[in-house]
Amino acid sequence: MSHHIVEVQDLNHTYPDGTKAVRGISFRIHHGESVAVVGANGAGKSTLLLHLNGYLTPQTGTVRIGDFPLTKATVANIRKTVGMIFQNSDDQLFMPTVYEDVAFGPQNLGLPPEEVELRVVDALNRTNVAHLRERPPYKLSGGEKRAVAIATVLSMSPDILVMDEPTSNLDPKARRALIELLGGFQHTKIIATHDLDMVLDLCERTIVIHEGKIMADGPTVTIFQDVELLAASHLEKPLRMQACPVCNSSAQAI
């Protein structure tokens, strides 16, 4: 399934103010992989993700989605394959009702009304928000907005999901519900996040970025056990891989 492969070769991106956000990044992601992209604030994670859906096009280097190199001429085709879920759900929800937001993409593909209806109902059911279909998005909770934002992407039937900080600003219950939702998807998933405990749940592979460069790319557990690598990248082990201070203090007291 070559059309599901994501390949980045020597990608560079410098913003107009001179900030070098991405410096020579290269990797290859295969069909069905769930891959985390982790790093400190300003590491280049979001800039990298914006290249995978064509919101940014390469200044130098290449991005390929399957058989398509990312260019201004191919971006429309690539966006049919790659669905992008932004960190701020309000960036994706702008219609009067949830149903209209989820229907917006399929309608703009020129699909017949019956196909649009089928896609919307399926996407709402898969994200467990069918009961919200007539609600205005601005009245939803953070977790509900995130689920609806995912539904707007699923209604486009992408093969690859790209997500920027999907658990940010969610309460613990909404976070857990989202992790369970994403865990049930068979899509190729690329997730940029600070939530390393979520990475343990969802991603068998992790790419560490620091100052626009890849520091490591490998099995998630192996990378999270490398304390020196994490420290050099301004990261820490996931909480559940750290020693429990309460347990340790209790043991010392005994």
- The total domain count is 1
Strand order within the widest beta sheet: 6-7-8-3-9-10
Mean pLDDT: 90
- CATH structural class: Alpha Beta
> What is the gyration radius calculated from CA atoms?
19 Å
Order of helices and strands: EEEHEEHEHHHEHEHEEHHH
Q: Can you count the helices?
A: 10
* SSE-based structural type: alpha/beta
Oligomer: single chain
- The geometry reads as globular
**Beta-strand percentage range:** 15-25%
Instruction: Name the CATH homologous superfamily.
Output: P-loop containing nucleotide triphosphate hydrolases
Q: How many strand segments? A: 10
List keywords for this structure.
6-stranded mixed β-sheet, 10 strands, alpha/beta, 10 helices, globular, 254 residues, 36% helix, Rossmann fold, 4-stranded antiparallel β-sheet, disordered C terminus
